[in-house]
Amino acid sequence: MRRIGRYCAGLALAAAVAACSDDAAERRRALGPHPSPGEALRAADAGRGGRLFRQCAVCHAIGKGAVDRDGPNLFGVMGAPVAANSPRFAYTGVLRALGGTWTPERMDAWLAAPAKMAPGTRMAFPGVADPLDRADIIAYLRTQADRP
Ligand code: HEC
């Protein structure tokens, strides 16, 4: 188990990180192929989400008060107004035009396919295909806040 952990830590590809995860396969089986965001979130594992966040960390810091990278700092983003989590970040007009706040359902849609939700967004990221991976990431985002 420890050897596997170290092996996973050295891998850059998110898919490979996901493949190394402990009970994800079991949770996936229990959820079935098309869980709703709510169902997936109820089974979510924030710890695993933190590991999956490595693919986001290329562009996003998530520490309180941390600087923006290619993307805005994501500390406290769940529940925050869309395109406003980091006041100093130059968001695109398409993202700003969405309005509303980051609910779990909207975050699920965003992480599944950013360019589909906001065509022309500067978030150059294809999306996370697996619903459970998205739920785990959302659960992790929730923990990185003053009020989870
Ligand atoms: C290649 C760089 C890159 C990667 C990788 C990336 N993002 Fe982003 N992200 C961006 C950029 C740039 C924006 C701003 C988009 C815009 O203004 O259109 C953004 C915006 C966001 C926002 C909106 C923040 C707000 O204030 O409303 C969220 C949430 C987000 N990203 C989450 C994630 C998550 C979670 C991942 C990993 C699964 C991820 N991103 C991966 C670059 C990236």
Task: Please characterize this protein's 3D structure.
The protein is 47% helix and 0% strand. The chain has 148 residues and is mainly α. The protein has a single domain, classed as Orthogonal Bundle (Cytochrome Bc1 Complex, Chain D, domain 2), CATH 1.10.760.10. The protein is globular, with a radius of gyration of 15 Å. It starts with a helix and ends in a 5-residue tail after the last helix. The protein binds heme C.
**Alpha plus pi helix count:** 10
What compounds are bound to the protein? Answer: heme C
CATH hierarchy: architecture: Orthogonal Bundle
* CATH superfamily membership: Cytochrome c-like domain
Low-confidence stretches: 1-17
**How far apart are the termini?**
30 Å
CATH topology: Cytochrome Bc1 Complex, Chain D, domain 2
